[in-house]
Amino acid sequence: MSETFITTQGPDGEDVLDWRENTIVDALRFHALRTPDLKLYTLLGDGENETDGITAIELDQHAKDLGSWLKRLLPEKARAILLYDNSLDYIRGLMACLVSGIIPVSGVHPKAFGARDRFLAIRDDSEASAVIGNKSVLAEFQKVCGPPDDGSRFLWIPTDSGRLPAGTQTFTPHSDDLALIQYTSGSTRTPRGVLLTHRNIAHNLFRQAKAFGYRRGDCGVNWLPLSHDMGLIGGALITLGTGGRCVLLAPEHVAEKPVRWLRAISKYRATLSGGPDFMYGLCARTIDDEDLHGLDLSCWEIAFNGAEYIRPDTMQNFYRKFSPVGFDSQSFFSCYGLAEATLLVTASTRGQGVRFQTFSRHSLSCGQATASKEPLDQRQLASCGAIFEDIRIVIADEETNEKLPDGRVGEIRIQSPGVSPGYVNRKAENERVFGGGVAGEQGTFLRTGDRGFVCDGELYVVGRQDNRITVGENILDPEDIIACLTKYADDIRMFSTTVFLESRNQEAPLVIATELPSASEVDKTALGQSIGKTVCERFPVQKCRVVFLRVGSMLKTPSGKIRVGEMREYLKSEHPNVLGEELYVQAGTPQVRILKFAHGKV
Questions:
Q1: Does residue 268 form part of some domain?
Q2: 408 domain residue, yes or no
Q3: Pairwise CA distance, residues 77 & 177, whole Å
Q4: How far apart are the C-alpha atoms of 402 and 438, rounded to whole Å?
């Protein structure tokens, strides 16, 4: 088989997956023959010590053994939910499905908040006929999860029940075959099952390898949930696509003690690792100076930051904290992607850091990216990198579908070999999201639901369409409001704060809900007034209702994003997790406030 595996040579002659003709199954078989003893994955089961590991030849054989057994229980193209902890068993189960023609369904991390409800929703939506996982996890879920509402047969299949008989490879997937159903996080709406073909995945792995400048010997550390697209495709499968090495940790172990992430990078001399912006902030705030002893982060060449708003303050604080132990600010690496495009869409360049530019907050709210000299009107945005040659990005007017010129804010639309065929069982939505065009452009484009613009050939993301706040003719972005609060108001954390309008009524206050890290020591009246003043000084807002919540009460997705719509409903009624509220009213009429904002004088 190795003679027929067509590889693409990277800049240093390394072998990477050829997305045009091969699949991730081909990649595993290739590495099993070419470098059988390469230890692809290492698991730190307690977040610190090695408890499992697997080589290329071992993973290839286990996939065949388990895959052959699954084929006896399930028909080809049956759908099976992966229900594993963040362990090598997740990868073993995934590859067993792929080599046997079974469609794995990814999207449930069993230890995440709300995992059982999410499992039931995904089971019913995906039309899965089975779930595979370890006995202990399956037993917990089976106790509280009844049979499907439609009465269909559903199998609970433990994959750790004993030694499996030797299996063989009897199914060869083709590039256009459905490979995986990946569920979205559901931060702004009900999670969707994204259909991904083998070509979608292979192309994205190829793009990642090119963007990262992947070199032979690169090692990654992944703590992100394997049930999430960034953890699975950007953390685990890139290892198979390139023949690299990956060290796995569980997200709950890193959340409990963030320094475990950095210790793994230091110990295994990892060159590639990252996550959302909040994790960099968490490390900078919570890791004590004494924990820096023994750390050496000079090996870390790509510290990718994606999946949410990228804040310059976060990066500055992280660099100040960890530069004494070798971290280089040029290692920061910004990227933009989404599950509907498999994962990565744009990225910065290895070794060049993240580029920030300052724009007028008011101009952005009116749909134009221009500079501003007024400090209160300035908003810093991170470039998400250059646009790849085989991916087309168009900024379009969401109403007219016309292409907008560079510097105009509109909906980001994508045309790429990595774009999914669509969602599971959502025909009308698929036509709107995946089947639409752009006036004057050929072919269909994915409507991302993200607002952004192109400047100097690079993509900048402004915010989500679903989260935007409209005040008069101005569009405000919650991420910008929260970023201002975390910079100018004490005790505010970006990953535990959300912002929305109480109602469509123009007189309704802006609601700012935030968790208090130390409720007993905080003067809520003073903090509420400070928050309201900070917002009203910088935005055309006259009233702010500040709601203080207990730590841990913010509703979030498995990947840590706040479920804004659910929080809006959650706060409509009295709740024991609400510690208090403050109403701030800015002096001056709304008309005067908006006029000042229009001239960058707020």
A1: yes
A2: yes
A3: 10
A4: 6
- The answer on 503 and 382 residing in a single domain is no
Strand segments (E) across 28-158: 39-44, 50-55, 79-83, 103-106, 130-133, 155-158
If asked whether residues 267 and 178 sit together in one domain, one would say yes
C-alpha 203/C-alpha 218 separation (Å) is: 20
Q: What confidence tens digit (pLDDT) does each residue in 528-574 have?
A: 888 888 888 888 888 888 999 988 888 887 667 788 878 888 887 77
213: left (phi over 0), alpha (psi -120 to 50) or beta: left
What percentage of residues in the chain have a pLDDT greater than 70? 91
Question: Which of 159, 133, 129, 154 has the alpha carbon at shortest distance from 69?
Answer: 159
Whether this model's pTM surpasses 0.85: yes
- CA 223 from chain centre, in angstroms, equals 12
pLDDT of residue 558: 67
Strands 103-106 and 79-83: parallel
Q: Which two tokens stand for residue 254?
A: 């890193």
The token duo for 320 is 């100040």
CA angle 177, 181, 186 (to 5 degrees): 150
CB atoms < 10 A from the CB of 136, how many?
Answer: 11
pLDDT grade for 3, boundaries at 50, 70 and 90: very low
What domain range includes position 34? 2-274
Q: Residue 4 pLDDT more than 50?
A: no
- Torsion of the alpha carbons at 537, 538, 541 and 547, rounded to the nearest 10: -80
The β-bridge partners of 305 are 275, 334
